[in-house]
């Protein structure tokens, strides 16, 4: 559960590497972060604005995919999870680069934006009655672990 953070009933959302399961979306996030940290960022004002907009928009596919899947509005799959994870990772990598190269204040605001997105997902799942089920599945999986 530490690396995959998915209970056995959700192992279809993981890659298996030997005996270790890795969350597909989180693996994509790591790929995206590494990609951005390898690239250098421009320092021109208009390019900085584009980077800020990308950091705002890139997390949305992952948030929508997770939310719609949990609400049973669409079926996700590992390819979609990997791709949306990479987009989320690109956004997080951009935020790291924004903090390092452009503005700590802007970076912190973008981190708060990500937290607000996640909070919004929790509110939506709670209002739909799906949050308790999600939490229950995870709690049961954790209790079964030695």
Which structural category fits the helices and strands? mainly alpha
Along the chain, the helix and strand elements come as: EEHHHHHH
Q: Helical stretch count?
A: 6
Report how far apart the termini are: 12 Å
Q: Radius of gyration over alpha carbons? A: 17 Å
- Helix fraction by DSSP (H/I, runs of at least 4): over 70%
Strand order of the largest sheet: 1-2
Q: Care to count the β-strands?
A: 2
What's the overall average pLDDT, rounded?
A: 87
What summary fits the major beta sheet? 2 strands, antiparallel
Poorly predicted ranges: none
Strand content: 5-15%
Inertia-based shape: globular
Give a description of the structure.
The protein is mostly helical and 146 residues long. Helices cover 71% and strands 5% of the residues. It is built from six helices and two strands; from the N terminus they run E-E-H-H-H-H-H-H. A two-stranded antiparallel ribbon has the order 1-2. Helix 3 packs parallel to helix 5 and helix 4 packs antiparallel against helix 5.
């Amino acid at each position: 559960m530490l690396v995959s953070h998915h209970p056995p009933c959700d192992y279809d959302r993981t890659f298996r590497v030997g005996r270790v399961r890795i969350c597909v979306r989180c693996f994509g996030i790591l790929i995206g972060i590494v990609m951005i940290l390898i690239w250098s960022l421009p320092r021109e004002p208009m390019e900085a604005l584009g980077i800020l907009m990308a950091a705002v928009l890139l997390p949305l596919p992952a948030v929508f995919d997770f939310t719609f899947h949990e609400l049973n509005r669409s079926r996700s799959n590992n390819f979609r999870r990997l791709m949306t994870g990479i987009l989320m990772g690109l956004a997080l990598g951009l935020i790291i680069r924004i903090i390092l190269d452009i503005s700590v204040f802007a970076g912190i605001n973008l981190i708060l934006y990500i937290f607000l997105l996640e909070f919004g997902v929790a509110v939506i799942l709670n209002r739909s009655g799906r949050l308790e089920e999600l939490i229950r599945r995870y709690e049961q999986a954790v209790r079964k672990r030695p």
